[in-house]
Amino acid sequence: MSKEPQRNLEALRARIKEDGSAVALQLFGMTGHGKSSLINSCVCVLKNIQYHNIAGAGRSDGGMSNKREEHKLTKSLIIIDNRGFRKMMPQEIAEACAQIRSLRDIGKVDWDKDNLEETIRQFPLKYQTYQTEQHPHFILPVLVYSGAQTWNANDAECMEKLITNAYRITGIHPVIVITNRDNRNHNSILERFGELGAMRRLCIQNYTENNHQRTDERDQQILEFLDVCIREARRGINMQEGEDPQTRFVSQASEQIKLESDQLREQFRQENDKLKEAIKKEGCSVS
Ligand SMILES: Nc1nc2c(ncn2[C@@H]2O[C@H](COP(=O)(O)OP(=O)(O)OP(=O)(O)O)[C@@H](O)[C@H]2O)c(=O)[nH]1
Ligand SMILES: [Mg+2]
């Protein structure tokens, strides 16, 4: 191989490693779409080391990710694995918003639970971190979708909700990663995300347990993904310049509390309607 492409790869790798912006790449996506594999790929390519399944990608015992787990990529860049969405119900979207708003700890993720209590518990704790130098990294949402999947109307609706919410919170669109680039579906999925307004979209072939032979082409895809993420995060950080981080956090936390309490109210209303219906069937009247 000519030395030129290799030099380009090295330059790209060095640029990413030298960047000092405190950024957390927060992964989202349906279960089994390649989030943990993306982390494995980033670690081995960026550190230029042998592939290891450090993020616990698709184990044969079915034990896929059920928690948020941080992996350090450089001195200032981290990537956070996530539990995969199951159906992208409203609760799952609300929980994703809480993560993007820095209102959740690393650890177990429960998409189905009503988490208003957790938001209220986290609010003062995270608020305090803004009074120290330890305040959270800029969170860049990254949405992972498999190019081997067939796109359907439900997917479109759910993905749009996530993209819109992430944009409202961070001021930038999530970065979209289409995995399984070898699958011929990937181009049409790329277009669908474009129709939803996502600006930064990349197709990659992850390194996996069955296929982790390093190639320059695949290394390049991963490094370009990280480079795009850093540039997008910097854009987001610049947009927030001049805003007081603490005030911004309070406003975001208040929005989250409103979102979760509206959802709870709607849930109670539906349960109440069901109850009234059941009582009516029994022949009693309810006011
Ligand atoms: N061919 C191919 N397989 C992939 C790719 N990415 C992931 N896989 C495979 O897809 C399966 C699921 O990948 P994971 O990385 O565990 O998916 P995940 O999104 O972390 O899943 P959850 O943890 O359940 O949310 C594994 O068997 C991977 O080897 C890819 O780009 N190409
Ligand atoms: Mg996983």
How would you briefly describe this protein structure?
The protein is of the alpha/beta class and 287 residues long. Helix content is 49%, strand content 13%. The protein contains eight helices and seven strands.
Write the layout of secondary structure elements.
Elements: H1 3-18, E1 23-28, H2 35-46, E2 67-72, E3 77-81, H3 90-100, E4 107-108, H4 116-129, E5 138-146, H5 153-170, E6 175-179, H6 186-195, E7 201-203, H7 216-239, H8 245-281
Parallel strand pairs: 1-3, 1-5, 5-6, 6-7
Antiparallel strand pairs: 2-3, 2-4
Helix pairs in contact: 1-7, 2-7, 3-5, 3-8, 4-8
Give the amount of beta strand, in percent: 5-15%
- What is the class in the CATH system? Alpha Beta
Helix content estimate: 40-55%
Number of helices: 8
The helix/strand series, from N terminus to C terminus, equals HEHEEHEHEHEHEHH
Low-confidence stretches: none
Description:
α3 (90-100) packs antiparallel against α8. The protein has helices at 3-18, 35-46, 90-100, 116-129, 153-170, 186-195, 216-239, 245-281; strands spanning 23-28, 67-72, 77-81, 107-108, 138-146, 175-179, 201-203. The chain is α/β, with parallel strands linked by helices and 287 residues long. It starts with a helix and ends in a 6-residue tail after the last helix. The protein has a single domain (3-281), classed as P-loop containing nucleotide triphosphate hydrolases (Rossmann fold), CATH 3.40.50. A hairpin with a 4-residue loop joins β2 (67-72) and β3. The radius of gyration is 21 Å and the shape is globular. The structure holds guanosine-5'-triphosphate (GTP) and magnesium ion. Residues 35-36, 57, 64-65, 81 line the site of magnesium ion.
